[in-house]
Specification:
Layout lengths: L6 H21 L6 H8 L3 H13 L3 E4 L2 E4 L1 H14 L2 H15 L2 E8 L2 E8 L15 E3 L4 H8 L3 H11 L2 H4 L5 H14 L2 E3 L7 E9 L5 E10 L5 H26 L2
Length: about 260
């Protein structure tokens, strides 16, 4: 019989497996190489390869040429989890209507731990578009407009704890220092919606509004992205009202769905 893993070692393995699975899913539908997984997870290439191979043996991943893709076990588990967590069908009408009303690209993102992941995208009619967001892309809370909106409405203790350990300015630049993030979060709470003034890609702006689950916690966000000239002061107020209207309506729908 194999010796049981020490708690700390077991936790580390789980964290590494989770990081590998997220790296593969974030790259979907295209295959991702072992070297790319190692770079994304900050693991050595041999360690990444061992984990990828083990996950493939269990059906969580598949080989596709020289790369890795998600496997059938993830699909089966996802189908079961979707019964509890999937809000795509409820949210789709709101994402489409936001794109139609504003002409901008509209999105639904979900909180997953310390990150947001984009679940839905709908293109607006305006011919010049921002391609910062796409389905499957992940950002730390507080970076993109969706993550700003969600982080702003977490309980203060939880928000402060995250800001104390996230150190976003190391990867995302000085505009993501704790002091600047706190200011943006305060503005988000005052307005009800977040504004990302081209902090990810110069000239590409975003706005977001949190969507709350049946417990009143921010678990998703609706957002809009576009070029800077489309996000002037007067129009931001108009876009903010639209985001808040649809985020509130979706939160109410989710609340009714979660009621006994």
């Amino acid at each position: 019989m194999d010796a049981p893993l020490e708690p700390r070692a077991g936790t580390q393995v789980v964290a590494r497996v989770g990081a590998v699975l997220r790296a593969v899913s974030a790259h979907a539908p295209a295959p991702i190489s072992t070297s790319e997984v190692a770079a994304a997870t900050r693991l050595t290439r041999p360690t990444a390869h061992r984990l990828l191979s083990a996950l493939a043996t269990e059906g969580f991943l598949d080989r596709d040429g020289a790369g890795w893709v998600t496997g059938p076990e993830l699909y089966l588990m996802g189908s079961i989890a979707a019964e509890r967590y999937d809000i795509a069908e409820l949210a789709r009408e709101h994402v489409r209507e936001l794109a139609r009303l504003t002409g901008e690209s509209a999105f639904l993102s979900a909180r997953r731990g310390d990150e947001t992941v984009c679940l839905l995208r709908e293109e607006g009619s305006f011919p010049i578009r921002s391609f910062v967001l796409h389905e499957g892309i992940r950002f730390p809370l507080g970076v993109a407009s969706a993550g700003l909106a969600i982080l702003a409405f977490l309980p203060q203790e939880e928000r402060d704890e995250y800001l104390g350990r996230a150190r976003l300015d190391g990867e995302w630049g000085a505009s993501h220092s704790v002091s600047e993030l706190v200011e943006r979060l305060e503005r988000t709470r005052a307005a009800g919606y977040s504004v990302n003034p081209g902090l990810l890609v110069e000239g590409s702006w975003g706005m977001g509004a949190a969507v709350f689950d049946e417990r009143g916690r921010p678990a998703w966000a609706l957002s809009l992205t576009g070029i800077e000239s489309r996000f002037r002061d007067d129009r931001r107020r108009e876009l903010g009202r639209a985001l808040l209207q649809h985020a509130h309506a979706l939160s109410q729908q989710l609340g009714r769905r979660g009621s006994p």
